[in-house]
């Protein structure tokens, strides 16, 4: 048996050391198999290196686009500390050389390691680009403060150590950060160890790059899955907006980094949709929902447990773009729904207008056909009246024929008005004047029925092009309806006003009002809810015909038991010789 020499012992110790480092590299690689999020992965590696190196602290710095993620594990605390700081580029290395070191010497060293560029005068760099000192006081004099003393935010934790190694963390082909091993002991590392550490950290670098790529791929998949599910939900036939928003809010947690502690809420038009675990407090990310350019609500994602700061609070940059994308999708969905509703309303209106027009044509035809025989009946009845020696009974009967024929002619006239078969005799009209004239004949009727008439006329109205007698007819029909709607009396308001393009007449009562069902039919000729001798069902049909033939429109609001409000708009007359509308006051 060969006797063990010193050099044999050294060789076997060295061999064991290499094997240990190899095992460490493998453990780091194994960490990439799990699906841990970015921060947890860095914590895992840092913790492994701390245990393996037996140092007092290990810090892993990862350079992101414009910030630096720092994860520090130390023997003094259980949980690694993770912070994200702004990445400070070193404008030039020269200031370091000229007049000694600036206050953040260790920071400068870190930057040199990451940028793989250091002044020749600094001899503490290994061939692999690592900075290495066994005695900070000697190599970076003045960089170390007394233990526990805080010098500056970024360097305070480093300063209490004596041995420091900063090893570049190299990704696919560039330095992506560094790993710092820190020990209070002097001369904790030797050259051979540094080389072994460099190899392990190289493996760690590849593992980090791989893991980051996997993590962002996973984030992307989650993001796309979320948007895809959202699109599918939106296409669900006949789904109500409320159900859709509830569905969307339930989709959100799965797309965030920590689904188990993620809650979400969507608020739209004052209504909220939340996941069961939603709570008011906690770190949150939110995006506004705009509908037709106006903010109408927001989406909020809340973490129910505190998580370390990342790109945006504890949230990832990808999550910001996802929440914005979801907000945009909700905008699109809500706007599409509104457009569909408007389309349906418009179609309803068109159908209504079309129905009125058809009925109009029909009535016009009937009216024409009836006009002549009615005229004959009336004429012959009046002729018969002139016959001598009629018995009083016959005279009374013929009188009835005359009265009934006149009544029938009235109806025919109204039908023709409704069907716009009677062309308006238009002049320039001041609505205040016409309404005042019309009310003159209605006041006594109001008073008799216990109706208080309130007038509020805009003092200065532009003229409209209208047929005054038709406007009288409109007023009479509306006022008579209002009086009939207030059988025990009430208040009738007649208001005129003006906007930039219309003169507006409002007739408002506080009578019985109408149900939605009635409201939808009031302009149909012969539609009435009144007894035979109270109503013909032609009043509002005529009002409609007249207003439309004047290029105007009618809006009605009615609440059963509260009252009814008719608003009639007539276009302001365009005057050739006058840009400003003319202004007549009453009286
Ligand atoms: P008529 O008055 O002959 O019934 P109209 O065309 O004038 O016919 O009115 C149609 C129907 O509209 C009425 O029967 C009534 O039900 C309803 N209506 C009209 N105006 C009012 C009002 N101011 N308040 C309540 N209901 C009204
Ligand atoms: Mg009526």
List the helices and strands and how they pair.
Elements lengths: L5 H26 L6 H16 L3 E7 L3 E8 L6 E6 L7 H5 L6 H11 L15 E3 L2 H4 L16 H4 L3 E8 L4 E9 L7 H45 L5 H15 L6 E7 L2 E4 L8 E9 L2 E10 L13 H69 L6 H27 L8 E3 L1 H18 L2 E6 L7 E3 L1 H18 L4 E9 L3 E8 L6 H4 L19 H11 L3 E7 L3 E9 L16
Parallel strand pairs: 12-14
Antiparallel strand pairs: 1-2, 1-6, 2-3, 4-5, 5-6, 7-8, 7-10, 9-10, 11-13, 14-15, 15-17, 16-17
Helix pairs in contact: 1-2, 1-7, 2-7, 7-8, 7-9, 9-10, 10-14, 11-12, 12-14
Topology-level CATH name of the largest domain: Beta-Lactamase
| Rounded mean pLDDT score | 85
Q: Give the overall shape, derived from the CA principal axes.
A: rod-shaped
The main pleated sheet reads as:
6 strands, antiparallel
Strand arrangement, major sheet: 3-2-1-6-5-4
Counting DSSP E segments of at least 2 residues, the number of strands comes to: 17
**What small molecules does this complex bind?**
adenosine-5'-diphosphate, magnesium ion
Q: Give the CATH architecture of the largest domain.
A: 2-Layer Sandwich
Beta content comes to 15-25%
Question: What oligomeric state do the depicted chains represent?
Answer: single chain
